[in-house]
Amino acid sequence: MKYAVITGTSKGLGASVAKQLMEASVHVIGLARGKNQELENADLPGSYKHYQVDLSDIEQTEATFQNIISFLKGQLVESLQLVQNAALVSPIEQAGKQDIAQLTAHVHVNLLAPMVVTNLWLDAWRDTDLSLVIANVTSGAANRSVYGWNAYGSTKAGLDRYTNTVALEQEMLGTGHKVFLFDPSIMDTDMQGEIRSADPSQFVDVDQFKNYKAENKLRDTDVVAKVLVDRLLNEASIQNGEYYSVKNIFK
Ligand SMILES: NC(=O)c1ccc[n+]([C@@H]2O[C@H](COP(=O)([O-])OP(=O)(O)OC[C@H]3O[C@@H](n4cnc5c(N)ncnc54)[C@H](OP(=O)(O)O)[C@@H]3O)[C@@H](O)[C@H]2O)c1
Q1: Which chain regions cross the lipid bilayer (predicted)?
Q2: Number of folded domains in the chain?
Q3: Burial letters 40-68, b for 16+ CB under 10 A, else e
């Protein structure tokens, strides 16, 4: 059976990716603090199993992924994909005015959890002939400095470097595992709502993001998810270490 493990499936992009993979007969294991009743009740060819977890809590994250690994080791797994999608944009604030607890949670969810999970994942399947696929969801913010997004830009840039480095290691080790980046560009999700609600003193470009919404420039997550899902369903087309952006599809 084909399996995909996706973080952040309670809403937004993660929920759309989960649904589309289930439509394509992939069995999805989803994670978030919240649940997703629609996915749990869906009557689709692929099943849905949810693990409630707070990815800012690294001990809880490790224990949850150990449970997922134990579950998968008991299944007949023919392909296994991991989509690390969960992330926070907050704190949106200039350095010097941030709450330390919020900053810590941000770095844990956006960067440390994906690193810890990747480490567990590659270790767990070290001695099998499964070719793993790991997609890490990034942002254009990794490559430009935006006033108020010092945390978000830094964790996404860190995730990019981490992904590229793990891809290089897997290439040199000849494992056949593929690790790549997916940039979804701007989507109509709660994360964008949070961005629009920032005060201009915290986020100088807030009006630009209000205009994206007003001018209907934010893409629907189902449209964006299809770009990633088409790629995941055609594993041979995935290049190890590649940066795959929605912007290259919708020019
Ligand atoms: N929206 C955009 O325009 C945009 C642009 C570029 C890149 N991205 C990236 O695309 C990805 C998806 O974003 P989105 O817009 O779909 O975001 P979203 O609607 O805010 O959803 C975020 C998901 O992450 C989960 N999550 C957040 N904190 C968590 C925690 N502590 N523990 C477990 N799960 C947690 C949330 O679940 P719970 O809250 O239920 O825990 C939710 O399912 C992110 O990596 C984001 O950086 C988004």
Answers
A1: none
A2: 1
A3: eebebebbbebbebbbbbbeebeebbeeb
